[in-house]
Write the structure tokens for this entry.
Amino acid sequence: MKSAVLVEPNRIEIRDQARPEPGPGQVLVRVRAVGVCGSDTHYFAGWRDHESGTIYPFVLGHEFAGDVAQLGAGVDDVAEGQRVLCAPDLPCGTCEWCVRGEKNVCPNVQFAGSAGVMGCLSEYYLVARSQLHPIPDSITYARATLCEPLAIGLYIIDNLVKPRGGESYAVIGAGPIGLVSAFCARLRNAGAVYVSERIGPRADAALRYGATEICRVEDEDDFENFIDAATGHNGVDVVIEAGGESGSILQAAKLSRIHGLVIIEGIPPAGEVPFAVDAARRRELNVIFGRRSLDKTDEALELIETGRFDADGMITHEFPLREAQKAFECTRDYRDGVIKAVIYP
Ligand SMILES: [Zn+2]
Ligand SMILES: [Zn+2]
């Protein structure tokens, strides 16, 4: 089978690899579509080698859908040829957090395409049966890959913000996670949703995904001034940091009102970045660092299937497997108005 193999930072080669055999409880999936995530590009660029222990050659990819190709022993509730969405994570199921149902923070999780676990950018990929969700014929494979980021948006709003409705939001960054956050905030009856973005096509997209107003950022403090003016110097109820840059994390606390809530969702290139402690302390802020999602796949699928969430509108670029290098460079460099690139193995 063909795989897109990261042989060193910023260089993917297409290589032939042995097709794996499913063991007990496992399923071999013929991978049909893989979404490129911002976090993938960190691995691609080699920024996270130090923490993840990435050993080359490595295979990236964790947002994927395909067909069931072969069943391992004991798997009898899916059929070969069935169309499936695959969850990227396999939590251990036995640790303190898994037992409590907080599987998204399982420290023993096997997560596709991260921390030494090979990803799915291959023609075939092995998963546990528990990672599969059958999908109806009405959802394309590419749309199904958007379930993973959309589930994160639902998790942020429902589980971390827990809104009552009417809240004002500031969303920093209109990449896929900023967009799904804005979308889910509006889905749960947000008031104003202000979104900041530097890149034109992403800012335009934000208006289609729930933003009530856009701040096109040119200078660092543009969004602070914008939120000051929009809220009469009070700040917003909820800040969602989805920029994943040192500067956006530093800015987050300054946009919030007193007793507001700040969700840090972006993943900065470095493990330690400055935070506006003074702004946070004076406002007695609640700050939550979000991690992945929990049990939102069914609702994400339904939102996509019914068209309430426009999955196609986020897919700006499509590539065959042999052009995986291009897909990653484009996403890494925010080139050509890319929001989400999808690769078809
Ligand atoms: Zn992702
Ligand atoms: Zn666990």
